[in-house]
Amino acid sequence: MQSGQKQIDIDFTLPSPWDGYRRKMQEASQRPTDEVLVAAFAAHRINGGYHKTNIYENVTTPHGDELCLIKKQANKLLVANHLMGKGDPLEILLEDVDMVEKAREHFKKYTLRSLGGQTSGLNEFEQNVYSCMLAETVGKNEYGIVSYIPALMDRELNDKMLKKTLKKDYSESQHQGKVKDKLTVVATIINKKFLSSWNRYVYQIGDGQNLYSFWHASGALNINDTYEFDARVKAHGIVYGRNEAETQLNYVKFRSVR
């Protein structure tokens, strides 16, 4: 410090002038949990599932300009904008309202699991979901969690049905063909997962006796729909986390069976 300059002491214990603003904004974003859930189910229906981030598409204008436009907004953004009055509101249908009651019934199981130990208890994300479901109101910081609840519910219900299907129909599944063999099989989609890190879908299909799986860029195939598949045998394995034999395929082509 130069001679003659006066030192100024700042009391860093004083509250930031932004604290009150942040608190008011958080209070303003508080909404009844059921209202946020209804918006979450509407966004899930409109988007045809859950999107963590915006989905973009490149388009060319009549003048030849290349534009990158938002094809689908992230679910949490749809929910937040709807609740905060930004842009066009979501179209809320009676089925969205009905799904809230179904969700509350579905997540009752978390009450018992919350009392479990390391193997049967809730993980950190499930604890956050459980906290939101118990709360009377949630704020903007929780909109993202609530927006994922419809997808989580779908996944858990599908996993439950998948386990029943595998146990009932595919306990005697056998590997088909030899590696690199061509095969044609008529089979039904019994499971479908999108892996964002690979930007690919993983499908599990069954012909009523034997199980197959493959990766594909297309998400057009829907669970319970039946197709005729032409493919090559990539490998012989077992269902992840289970014991059923599964024939892994690649170079897959498919067509609908009517």
What is the element layout, followed by pairings?
Blueprint: H1 17-28, E1 31-32, H2 33-47, E2 55-60, E3 66-72, H3 75-84, H4 94-106, H5 109-113, H6 124-134, E4 137-138, H7 140-169, E5 182-195, E6 200-206, E7 211-216, E8 226-238, E9 245-256
Parallel strand pairs: 7-9
Antiparallel strand pairs: 1-4, 2-3, 5-6, 5-8, 6-7, 8-9
Percent helix, as a range, is 25-40%
The overall strand count is 9
Low-confidence runs: none
Indicate the proportion of strand residues. 25-35%
What is the N-to-C order of secondary-structure elements (H for helix, E for strand)?
A: HEHEEHHHHEHEEEEE
Describe the structure.
It is a single chain. By secondary structure, this protein is α+β, with helices and mostly antiparallel strands. 37% of the residues lie in helices and 27% in strands. The protein contains seven helices and nine strands. The protein has helices spanning 17-28, 33-47, 75-84, 94-106, 109-113, 124-134, 140-169, and strands at 31-32, 55-60, 66-72, 137-138, 182-195, 200-206, 211-216, 226-238, 245-256. Helix 2 (33-47) packs across helix 4 (94-106). The N and C termini lie far apart (85 Å). The mean pLDDT is 88.
Summarize this, please?
By secondary structure, the protein is α+β, with helices and mostly antiparallel strands. The protein is 37% helix and 27% strand.
Which terms summarize this structure?
single chain, 258 residues, alpha+beta, OB fold (Dihydrolipoamide Acetyltransferase, E2P), 2 domains, 5-stranded mixed β-barrel, two-stranded antiparallel ribbon, 7 helices, 9 strands, 37% helix
